[in-house]
Amino acid sequence: MADSAHSAKSADRRTWYEKFFNDSPYLAYLKHSHIEHLDDAVAFVKSKLELKAGQVLFDQCCGHAALGACLAADGVKVYGCDIAPKMVEAARENTRSKGTAAEANANFVVADAREYQCPEPADAAINWYTSFGYGDDDDNQMLLARVYESLKSGGRFALDYPNTAVVLGKFRKSMVQNIPTEGGNLLVTRESRVDARNGRLEQSWTFVEADGTRSSFDGTVRIYLPSDLCAMLEEAGFVGLELFGNTEGDWLSLESNRCIIIAAKK
User: Which CATH number does the domain housing residue 254 bear?
Assistant: First the structure.
């Protein structure tokens, strides 16, 4: 029995984020976290990316398509990819809930964002809700390259990432939240530490479901300064970078919780 368990564990060669987003109850946390400011985020993206009905959007690392489903309902043609099948199914379900028109406008597929290019030249693209920085620098640069290749000339891209100044300046070692779900409350605990040598935020998540089921997962995200992100975007070929601190359109500052960069393809 022990040998079988060891063999199964050894055979699981998935990345941490494939395991995390497929196997954990994180989806319930994700849905709960994004409800409050969703309308502001959709309005911001439509405005800054100059996105209109009938145009094409590439939703890279789409998750459950919090923004993508809303934009599809507004008449935007959305192509999304995510490496986690659980998230892609959630994206499809979310889009179906917006109506038949939204469902007809959306196409979400299971794919590695380091390799996936939008099948149709896109007018705009998003990588939203800290879906960037999970791999090493080469992996992360590949994501930006795929976005650049997916866009039409002049197409605009929005990258949403934490503001490192706030993450480090107001560092939270522990977080505990009770998330209401259809099956009862989900208790979520997150322990964080900074790996200064490698420039990464290491996190350990523990979930306790309403029936008492307990599971734990580890994750790691690269810590990038805004200047690092700008350099990576420019290396990929992007120009005209603008940095915002929230979806209300305020410029990035030391107090901003987010670092949202708008960039354009030449």
Answer: 3.40.50.150
182 lies in a domain?
no
Give 183's pLDDT tier (boundaries 50, 70, 90): confident
pLDDT tens by residue, 15-35: 999 999 999 999 999 988 878
List all residues 6 or more positions away from 84 whose beta carbon is below 8 Å from its beta carbon: 17, 18, 21, 22, 110
Q: pTM for this structure? A: 0.94
Q: DSSP letter string over 60-125?
A: ET-TT-HHHHHHHHTT-EEEEEES-HHHHHHHHHHHHTT-HHHHHHEEEEE--TTT---SS-EEEE
Domains in the chain: how many in total?
Answer: 1
Does residue 12 carry a pLDDT above 90? no
Structural domain for 100, as ranges:
29-162+224-265
The answer to whether residue 167 is domain-embedded is no
Q: Is 50 helix (H, G, I), strand (E, B) or coil?
A: coil
